[in-house]
Write a structure and sequence with these properties.
- Helix 4 packs parallel to helix 12.
- A six-stranded parallel sheet has the order 4-3-5-6-7-13, with helices on both faces. It has a six-stranded mixed sheet with strand order 9-8-10-11-12-14, sandwiched between helices. A two-stranded antiparallel ribbon has the order 1-2.
- It is 37% helix and 19% strand.
- The protein folds into three domains: 77 residues, Arc Repressor Mutant, subunit A, CATH 1.10.10.10; 128 residues, 3-Layer(aba) Sandwich (Rossmann fold); 117 residues, 3-Layer(aba) Sandwich (Rossmann fold).
- By secondary structure, the protein is α/β, with parallel strands linked by helices.
- The radius of gyration is 25 Å and the shape is elongated.
Length: 343
């Protein structure tokens, strides 16, 4: 087996991953059998003319993916399962909205099948933004899954959420959409940088925003808003001289001219549109509208609503890649501004 490994010194793939890829491919195509003993660290170092650290990294990577196992005093062996087999993933989402469904569908597509051709086992639960349901579901299923992919939208229970998530083995945990303060250990995540994304998007929209004097952000008390978004809103308005106006009682909203409205929820978007129609103001001229999260409806509504949106498809696919790699890496999901006639 060892004699067939070819290390390419000029490849952009790290040497330890070249070793990993060879062993994984060998298992896939039955060239390497379950139970087969691997060379020792020193044997492989000598054969490939690589450092001990390179071989250690390769074996550690394979061990974390449960591809190989070690027996003290006897070395490393190929496990009985092929890569991808034995994966069982719990997805715990706060809701199954249009955007969360995009995340889920992309995750499922990217996970695909294991290398025996069977679908990777996935279970999806939603907790409807309710901490008690979240707690019950997670505690009930601790220890049953190889990985836990969780969207932790529980701003009013941050400390308890962190304590609960700390019960999940960190090598099995992948957080989506937002981080949770107070977590210990090394875990994986694919999150939005809400404050930075908002400031960058509004800065990109400045040529269109400059015709408005006031920026309004709709922040109803029952919405699951991020404090980082609010911080970004005030920071941007201060930096560029806009009057910043948070609106907490959306039902009492009075539409004013020379104002732009940032809507975090779709229902608030419809409220702003409906109330603007009761005035003489024109959307895109005296009144501007920016919504969060792209949907097909926003492409056509009023000939197009300007949107700030993270890439939900990318979020799901990156999460699946992190599960397969079993690597505790933190990834900021990309965000984009889509300008349309509403601004």
């Amino acid at each position: 087996m060892v004699g067939q490994i070819a290390i390419n010194d000029f490849s952009s793939t790290p040497k330890y991953l070249q070793i990993v890829n060879y062993i994984v491919d060998g298992i896939q195509f039955n060239a390497i059998r379950p139970g087969e003993k691997l060379p020792s660290l020193y044997e492989l170092c000598a054969e490939l003319n690589v450092s001990k650290r390179t071989v250690e990294r390769a074996y550690d990577h394979l061990r974390k993916q449960n591809i190989i196992g070690g027996v003290h005093g006897k070395g490393y062996y190929i496990n009985s399962l092929k890569p991808g087999q034995g994966l069982k993933v719990l997805l715990l989402f706060n809701e199954l909205s249009t955007h969360k469904k995009i995340v889920y569908d992309a995750f499922v597509d990217q996970m695909g099948t294991d290398w025996s051709g069977d679908p990777v086992a996935l279970d999806l639960f939603t907790y409807n933004n309710n901490y008690r349901i979240f707690e019950d579901l997670l505690l009930k299923h601790l220890g049953e899954y190889s990985h836990y992919v969780i969207i932790p939208h529980l701003d009013s229970h941050q400390e308890k959420t962190a304590q609960l998530l700390n019960q999940v083995p960190k090598e099995k945990l992948i957080l989506l959409d937002k981080r949770v303060e107070g977590l210990s250990g090394q875990y994986a995540s694919v999150v939005q940088n809400f404050e930075k994304d908002l400031i960058q998007s509004l800065t990109e929209a400045l040529p269109l925003l400059n015709k408005y004097a006031t920026l309004n952000m709709l922040l109803p008390t029952d919405t699951n808003r991020s404090n980082a978004i609010v911080n970004g809103f005030f920071a941007f308005c201060y930096e560029y001289g806009f009057q910043a106006k948070p609106i907490y009682e959306v039902g009492n909203l009075n539409i004013e001219g020379s104002s732009a409205y940032i809507c975090l929820r779709e229902e608030d978007l419809f409220t702003v549109i409906g109330k603007t129609k009761d005035t003489s103001y024109q959307i895109g001229k005296q009144v501007g509208i920016i919504a969060y999260n792209e949907t097909p409806l926003k492409e056509i509504l009023l000939d197009g609503i300007t949107v700030i949106s993270t890439d939900f498809d990318r979020m799901g696919r990156t999460a699946a890649d992190l599960v397969r790699a079993n690597h505790p890496r933190h990834v900021e999901n990309p965000c984009r501004l889509i300008t349309r006639r509403s601004l």
